[in-house]
């Protein structure tokens, strides 16, 4: 895999090497989003004896820029800055190269499997699949696209052929952020601070991700299909997804399986096979959209079911009001069972 990526990178370099460039210098534009939510939840068991929280927020500022070389190849950069965090201030940062050969990306980014995976439609702020339900209640987070997340990696996407596109990513688990924490002792007191060197705390396992997707319209009916997977450590994760759109409706679902020895050093459920699926439907008309989604996962020491009713209404350009009503039921073999519900509402601003 390493040899393939090196050879591919060399071909891209040769494609535009040695040519004088009259292209414009890269100028970064500013974008991003802000989400502010207020909510209420009620459940049988909680860690603190009451609700987990009443407010959630998420803000990112994105800097993007690109230039086109004389031979038509586009080169660009993306930097995503977290608005509030206790650890890594940069969410994603990578460069990309676009051309007739497809797209190369190098830097800290999601894997091809994560980027190409299709899940059931959902328009609310909570969702049942890799959403924010565990931010409002003490519930296991259902996830059918269980990839390694943001890592320093190299990714290649093919051009689209007849609606088909493939992608492959290579990374290792030496660290997601390119930094490490170190302990400094002053006058007998130890303090953990952020380091500036590359993180070499991982086991050195390769992380190979791949995906194949199909997206096409057939006379008013749109079809999306995905097959994605990832190898990390001694195990694999893989999943399938589909969305079908007709009129104002979209119907879809996904399934994911995780081996018991996938990513043992980074997964809180290490040593357990995981099986999850979701299914849902959404309806959009003018500025409004509504969705109903169901999710389920067997996580080895129990299982969880969840339902989310989502609403999205566009108030103006880049401003939408979103709400979710959710319910869950979690059965545990080793700890107390838990079930509950919640309501979340708020605004998302895209800029």
Question: What are its keywords?
Answer:
16-stranded antiparallel beta barrel; single chain; 351 residues; 3 helices; Porin; mainly beta; two-stranded antiparallel sheet; 56% strand
Radius of gyration, in angstroms, nearest whole number: 22 Å
Total domain modules: 1
User: Low-confidence parts lasting 5 or more residues at pLDDT below 50?
Assistant: 177-186, 190-198
Q: How many individual β-strands?
A: 18
| End-to-end separation | 38 Å
How are helices and strands ordered from N to C? Answer: HEEEEEHHEEEEEEEEEEEEE
CATH superfamily grouping: Porin
Shape: globular
Q: Give the strand order, joined by hyphens, for the main sheet.
A: 1-2-3-4-5-6-7-10-11-12-13-14-15-16-17-18
- Binned, the helix content reads under 10%
Count every helix, treating DSSP H or I runs of 4 or more residues as helices. Answer: 3
Q: The CATH topology is what? A: Porin
| Biggest β-sheet description | 16 strands, antiparallel, barrel
Mean of residue pLDDT?
85
């Amino acid at each position: 895999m390493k040899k393939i990526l090196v050879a591919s990178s060399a071909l891209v370099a040769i494609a535009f090497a040695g040519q004088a460039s009259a292209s414009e210098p890269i100028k970064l534009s500013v974008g991003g989003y802000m989400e502010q939510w207020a909510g209420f939840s009620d459940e049988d068991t909680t860690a603190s004896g009451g609700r987990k929280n009443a407010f959630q927020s998420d803000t990112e500022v994105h800097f993007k820029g690109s230039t086109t070389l004389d031979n038509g190849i586009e080169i660009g950069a993306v930097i995503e800055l977290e608005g509030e965090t206790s650890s890594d201030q940069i969410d994603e940062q990578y460069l990309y190269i676009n051309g007739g050969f497809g797209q190369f990306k190098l830097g800290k980014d999601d894997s091809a499997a994560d980027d190409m995976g299709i899940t059931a439609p959902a328009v609310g702020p909570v969702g049942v699949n890799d959403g924010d339900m565990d931010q409002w209640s003490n519930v296991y987070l259902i996830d059918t696209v269980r990839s390694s997340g943001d890592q320093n990696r190299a990714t290649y996407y093919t051009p689209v052929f007849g609606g088909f596109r493939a992608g492959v990513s290579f990374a290792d688990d030496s660290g997601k952020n390119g930094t490490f924490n170190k302990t400094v002792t002053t006058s007998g007191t130890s303090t953990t601070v952020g380091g500036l060197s590359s993180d070499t705390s991982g086991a050195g396992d390769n992380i190979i991700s791949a995906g194949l997707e199909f997206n096409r319209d057939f006379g008013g009916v749109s079809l999306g299909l995905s097959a994605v997977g990832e190898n990390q450590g001694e195990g694999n994760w893989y999943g399938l997804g589909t969305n079908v759109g007709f009129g104002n409706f979209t119907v879809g679902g996904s399934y994911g399986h995780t081996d018991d020895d996938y990513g043992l050093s980074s997964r809180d459920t290490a040593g357990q096979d995981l099986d999850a699926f979701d299914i849902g439907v959404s309806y959009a008309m003018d500025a409004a959209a509504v969705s109903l989604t169901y999710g389920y996962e067997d996580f080895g020491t129990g299982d969880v079911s969840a339902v989310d009713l989502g609403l999205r209404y566009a108030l103006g350009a880049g401003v939408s009001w979103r709400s979710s009503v959710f319910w869950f039921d979690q059965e545990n073999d080793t700890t107390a069972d838990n079930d509950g519900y919640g309501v979340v509402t708020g605004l998302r601003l895209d800029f």
